[in-house]
Amino acid sequence: MKRLLVMLLPALLLIGCGQKESEPDKEVSGGMENQEVVLTVEPIQEPEQIKFNMSLENQGENAVDFQFSTGQKFELVVYDSEHKERYRYSKDKMFTQAFQNLTLEPGETYDFSDEWKEVPEPGTYEVKVTFKGKAEHLKQIQAVQQFEVK
């Protein structure tokens, strides 16, 4: 009987710890207004690269606290017209595994950028940016933008 209790106790603790109540998430995506945060991405073609200017704006009335589990603040992926991946920001990079925080006050903007050190052949491309910060009551924040390379 004692053995059975010793074996069941850890399992019961794991089951009890794994359950948590949560409020429904708000979906947040770039280019669309939402209740709190907007992510935008602006691709700019330069002679030897494509530059991506990104901006995360808190349009709500309360501060939003983001937590990061690594040094990577965002992921950016470029797809061609056949939805083939052509560029990924994190490819061949390593990021620290340190917890970091970012607080955006109401009306405050966090700006960041990336450069794709290549100008691909002319055509239509799509860039998808995912902000890696997690905030209470917010789903993962993304922006998707089509752009033309001339």
TrEMBL record:
Matching PROSITE patterns: PROKAR_LIPOPROTEIN
InterPro entries assigned: Intracell_prot_inh_BsuPI, IPI
Residues in Intracellular proteinase inhibitor BsuPI domain copies: 40-135
Gene3D superfamilies linked to this entry: Intracellular proteinase inhibitor BsuPI (2.60.40.2360)
Domain of life: Bacteria
Protein name per Swiss-Prot or TrEMBL: Intracellular proteinase inhibitor BsuPI
